[in-house]
Design goal:
It is a single chain. By secondary structure, this protein is α/β, with parallel strands linked by helices. It folds into 2 domains: 64 residues, Chemotaxis Receptor Methyltransferase Cher, domain 1; 185 residues, 3-Layer(aba) Sandwich (Rossmann fold), CATH 3.40.50. Helices cover 41% and strands 18% of the residues. The chain has 10 helices and 10 strands. A 7-stranded mixed β-sheet has the order 6-2-1-7-8-10-9, covered by helices on one side. A 3-stranded antiparallel β-sheet has the order 3-5-4. Helix 3 packs across helix 4 and helix 5 packs parallel to helix 6. The longest helix is centred in the N-terminal third of the chain and has 15 residues.
Length: 268
């Protein structure tokens, strides 16, 4: 494939665009990543420079969305940071009063592994009418994959055997080498594109919100805005979970108290 070099001034424009659209702070070490991921779009349109592509995304919203998709793909897998799911299983689910539906928001859902991991635990211990999950991500491509619930067979190893045997269907034919999430739990789930820079009032309130492995991409001001927006969707007494690799040290969180490493509870 032909290589077109991303110039420093062009990279700075992409930094500004992705910060404006997604709040993500692309550091200078990401220049090669941006060049590599966007090169296929230049080839697709037969463009001669990244400046030409910048002009395109400034007038074409669909292509702007494609650019955001290419630059916001993150690693994920089932039952990542298992301690969080043990907390859900051992402490949250047994203490839920069942007077209201237990609602969970996977706020950086990627391809859905976090949301489906949660769904397996809820469905195995609660009645169908007692829980629901919303998964959102700014990347429309990963949301499409989450809705399908079809994954590489190698990912199944992270799922506990007891849950694997109930909720994972081995692919056949064209889906050989993959597994499908059982359709029985998808009726309680919704995946949609969502921007954490927005307040998302229409999402309603939640008992549990996961916001994991995304705060590391934001500067402190953006992190403050995102956490404020997300915590506003949390019921008083509800729980907010970030990744073990992240912290809230540089922002103000008066509505939250820390109850465990990376786990917070809304108190006001």
């Amino acid at each position: 494939m032909t290589t077109i070099t991303l110039q420093e001034n062009e990279f700075q424009v992409f930094q500004k665009i992705i910060f404006r659209e997604a709040g993500i702070d692309l550091n200078d070490k990401k220049k090669l990543l941006v060049q590599t991921r966007l090169l296929k779009r230049l080839m697709h349109y037969k463009l001669k420079s990244y400046t030409d592509y910048i002009r395109l995304v400034q007038i074409d919203k669909l292509e702007l969305n494609e650019m955001v998709n290419l630059l916001t793909t993150n690693e994920t897998y089932f039952f990542r940071e298992i301690e969080h799911f043990e907390f859900l299983q051992k402490e949250l689910i047994p203490n839920h009063p069942y007077k209201t539906k237990f609602r969970v928001w996977s706020a950086a859902a990627s391809v859905g592994a976090e949301a489906y991991s949660t769904a397996m635990l809820l469905d195995s211990t609660m009645a169908k009418q007692d829980w629901e999950i919303l998964g959102t991500d700014i990347n429309s491509d990963v949301i499409k994959k989450a809705r399908v619930g079809l994954y590489p067979e190698s990912w199944i190893d992270k799922i506990p055997q007891a849950l694997r045997s109930v909720y994972c269907l081995k692919g056949k034919g064209q889906h050989a080498g993959k597994f499908l999430i059982d359709r029985g739990i998808i009726s309680n789930m919704r995946f949609q594109v969502g921007n954490l820079l927005e307040q998302n009032i229409d999402f309603g309130k939640f008992n549990l919100i996961f916001l994991r492995n995304v705060l590391i991409y934001f500067d402190n001001d953006t992190k403050q805005k995102v956490v404020d927006n997300v915590v506003d969707r949390l019921l008083v007494g509800g729980f907010f979970i970030i990744s073990h690799t992240e912290n809230l040290n540089m922002i103000k969180i008066p509505k939250l108290k820390q109850v465990k490493t990376s786990i917070y509870q809304r108190v006001i």
